[in-house]
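Anyone opening a protein record will find just a pair of labelled lines. A complete record is shown below as an example:
=====
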Amino acid sequence: METKFKLLRVFFLLILVMSCDKDTVIDNELTNDVLEKAYQEILYQKNQPDPTEVIKNNSLKIYVHYMPWFFNMEQDGYWGQHWTMTNKDPNVMDENGKREIASHYYPLIGVYSSNDNDLQEYHLLLMKLSGIDGVIFDWYSSRDVNDYNALKNSTESFITEIEDVGLEFAIMYEDKTAQYTTQEGGSSIINNAVVDLQYIQDTYFTSENYIKINDSELLFLFGSNYITDPLDWEIIIPQLNSTPYFMSLWETSDRLGQYAGGEFSWIDSNHMTTLSNYYQYCIQNNIQTVGGVYPGFNDFYYEGGWRPTTDNDWVISHSGTQVLNETLTLTDSSPVEFIQLITWNDFGEGTMIEPTNEFGFSYLEEIQSYTGVSYTFDDLQLPYRLYLLRKKHKKNNRIQTILDRVYQFIFMLDLDHAKTLLSTLEKKYAI
């Protein structure tokens, strides 16, 4: 009897194993079919699909101030100064693999390069799923002075992806850079500004995704702090093909004379009082203004050796998402043309809203709530998962091609197909 029982038990186990093996085979076949379909779709695709427009309940445009000035060893062969300042070494890592950088905060994906296409996908897709309409690039010069040429090239490396994803963009020109000349020297501040603005006109204004106001290209000035005489602008602007619509730093528009447009606010130590007073100033003086929204401020300049003392140090504590919500709410009662998020990724000043170890995706979730998009925290994970798979399988051309399809599905807002592909890849290639 005991022998018979043992035989029945073995027979039952064999049937169970065969059934599991059959299910595994079927599951593997389905997995391979899903991945092969995506792979073939890319191979035989004649044109890049058009991006789908995000539907928002809040019609107010939101643009994000972006720093394209990060460089890392893997992508660029060196660690850029905005990760190191004067005394930090990203080659030094702690037991968790966290690198030493010049910031109180740490990017969720680690220490990246602005030139990395995977990084660009990740950032731009996160923006789109948050209801952000476009990017304002912090831009220094077209001339090969200091590291300006590298920053210019980094900015331009984003343009194709911006057009793919369906976001807008504009340039914020730092007019202080006009004082610096090339090694050959000889050019005046006025001539340097002309060269820079002509370059902006010829290189960026030509994109269909460049932001316009009243049919004129929007050009931000972080100033004007060095070209302050309206008569100088009378020399500069006529040398362009058309007149941009200028947005200058708060309380500086009078320096542009007849070319004055609107103004944008920035961050100040007594921030809510200063912002409130400034919005009232704009109402009283009939100045078109941009809403300034930020999550906090906590720079690393003293610790990083970029400021010699702690004199006049100030901090705006992030307090979770409190400061972000306060500055967002303040724009609701102010006649702002649109909102500028300050900033996406200034880690040196601690104003970043991109995902970090410290704050996760919380800032983007708050922006989703404000813009009224239908997307959620889970949807924000899709660009993050895409980025991780890009890096994990960076030498596998087939997987990269399939991930190209994931990228397309996300900017087309076909998130169900994106989730299916990502989950299939994660399951098939799980460690």
The two ends are 45 Å apart (CA to CA). The first helix runs from residue 2 to 43. The CA atoms of residues 389 and 395 lie 11 Å apart. The first strand starts at residue 62 and ends at 66.
